[in-house]
Design brief:
Helix content: over 70%
Structural class: mainly alpha
Largest sheet: 2 strands, antiparallel
Distance between the termini: 100 Å
Shape: rod-shaped
Oligomer: single chain
Number of helices: 4
Strand content: under 5%
Strand order of the largest sheet: 1-2
Radius of gyration: 44 Å
């Protein structure tokens, strides 16, 4: 995943969190109403950001296979060239054998050259395979690190969203408790205002109108 892709994923997560934070709260509950289409668009954008990296991983694997195939092809060609070279050396040795007195020396020289050519070809093939394997391994390791960073960013976004949701729930709880306290205070004030006039006139709560006239 490139740096641009990581920034894009982070931006989408931040925008998704902001959408939830600014959503209209449902009264007397911890729920909220989010814009359906906008939220689905953000989720689709996130979904489209990650498959690109999976495609990149598959491409890396395909490149590794292609590198190994090329290495094997080059190795086969090198071995074939070495065999041709060895055959040419052997043929040259045989030709020189007819011209030189010391046939054994010519044959020995040709055999040594052929052995050296084959050893050099084998060493080249081994180095080529090691280089291809190291390149593929390093590329996959870099991709794993990038995917881990993307996963950490997504997890951080989920944690932030959970914290915001918990804060909204606590605010809703406090908003439900405050109206109940205000209603209780009003009832007490109304009850007090109904008893005060009788007590102020000196009449007992049990006195009747006739008692007042006498």
């Amino acid at each position: 995943m490139t740096a641009h892709s990581l920034r894009r994923v982070d931006e989408l997560l931040v925008e998704l969190v902001e959408t939830v934070e600014t959503a209209r709260a449902v009264p007397m509950s911890g729920s909220c109403v989010v814009p359906r289409e906008r939220t689905l668009d953000l989720l689709d954008a996130l979904h489209e950001s990650f498959p690109a990296e999976l495609t990149e991983a598959r491409q890396v694997l395909a490149q590794r296979d292609a590198l190994l195939a090329d290495a094997n092809q080059v190795a086969a060609q090198v071995v074939a060239d070495a065999e041709v070279r060895a055959h040419e050396i052997m043929e040259a040795g045989r030709a020189e054998h007819a011209e030189l007195v010391s046939a054994s020396r010519v044959h020995q020289t040709a055999a040594e050259q052929a052995t050296q050519a084959r050893a050099e070809a084998d060493q080249y093939v081994a180095e080529l395979r090691d280089d291809a394997t190291s390149f593929a391994d390093q590329t996959l390791a870099d991709l794993v690190e990038v995917l881990q960073q993307a996963t950490a960013t997504a997890q951080q976004g989920r944690t932030t969203l959970a914290e915001r949701r918990e804060g909204d729930h606590e605010r809703d709880e406090r908003s439900r408790e405050e109206p109940a306290g205000r209603y209780a205070g009003r009832a007490e004030r109304r009850l007090g205002s109904g008893i005060a006039p009788e007590l102020a006139s000196g009449a007992s709560p049990d006195s009747t109108p006739a008692d007042k006239d006498s």
